[in-house]
Write a structure and sequence with these properties.
The N terminus is likely disordered. A 4-stranded antiparallel β-sheet has the order 3-4-2-5. With 248 residues, the chain is α+β, with helices and mostly antiparallel strands. It is extended. It is built from 11 helices and 6 strands.
Length: 248
């Protein structure tokens, strides 16, 4: 089996009693002490990557979770993830790794769009309740009841792609052409990817493309009305097309 970390997998373990004492009865703690990084030299707080801990301890994610749960119940320690964490357990080696990767990516995209659509509906409902003023409570209650009773009719189909702005493809090509030097993948340059272009077009600052630099670009925030994933997907296709046709 393979434990594959996808997003944010750093754990912080805080021990409320000397961890060396716990290590005598809990082998997992021994690995945390030995391989984890102390936040402060004199503290009982350790940082360690969850997949690294699983590999070193020869334990599955479920076994680690159960062990941590017991320690927390006994008030011996606390474990907190430093970011959202998502792992898959691979039971057998897939014949087509690209296919399974695409299926996982597709499933995550559907879940993201579904959550985004639901948040949009709830935001709209709260706005209506606020506008209704004195009748806001009734509007809110009716909307919540309808939300759970008629979920399918209220939530739009998450598999349906949004209409792409007819000027989007042209602007993406102009942006790639103007920044084609970033496709050379030099260590000193930020990588030009589909998601990086989507961030610029939606005005989302990132370490590689900070707002204080790229905010002056004419493409900054030009397509905030479109779905991020739609832009990223089209931008990735345009990058591939540019590499195959312009950089040869």
């Amino acid at each position: 089996s393979l434990l594959q970390p996808l997003v944010g997998h750093m754990c912080e373990f805080s021990f409320f009693k000397p961890p060396q004492e716990l290590a005598e009865n809990v082998p997992l703690v021994e690995h945390i002490i030995k391989h984890g990084k102390k936040k402060v030299a004199s503290s009982g707080i350790y940082h360690i990557e969850i997949h690294k801990l699983a590999e070193l301890s020869k334990m599955s994610l479920l076994q680690i979770q159960e062990t941590v749960h017991i320690m927390q119940q006994m008030k011996h320690a606390r474990c907190e993830l430093q970011g959202n964490s998502l792992c898959y357990r691979i039971w057998e080696t897939p014949k087509n790794k690209r296919s399974i990767a695409q299926q996982i990516a597709s499933r995550l995209h559907q879940a993201f769009k579904s959550e985004k659509t639901r948040l949009g509906f709830l935001h709209g409902l709260l706005s209506k309740a606020h506008e209704a003023s004195s009748d806001g409570d009734r509007v809110l209650k009716d909307g919540i009841v309808a939300y759970f009773d008629s979920d399918a009719s209220l939530i739009e189909n998450t598999d349906e792609e949004e209409d792409v702005d007819r000027f989007l493809q042209r602007d993406i090509r102009v942006f790639i052409q103007a920044n084609r030097h970033l496709l050379q993948r030099k260590p000193s340059m930020p990588p030009l990817t589909g998601r990086a272009i989507a961030r610029v077009l939606q005005g989302i600052s990132s370490p590689s493309y900070p707002a204080y630099i790229w905010g002056r670009n004419t493409m900054w925030k030009r397509y905030i009305h479109l779905d991020f994933e739609v832009i990223a997907k089209l931008a990735t296709k345009e990058i591939i097309w540019h590499i195959n046709n312009k950089l040869k």
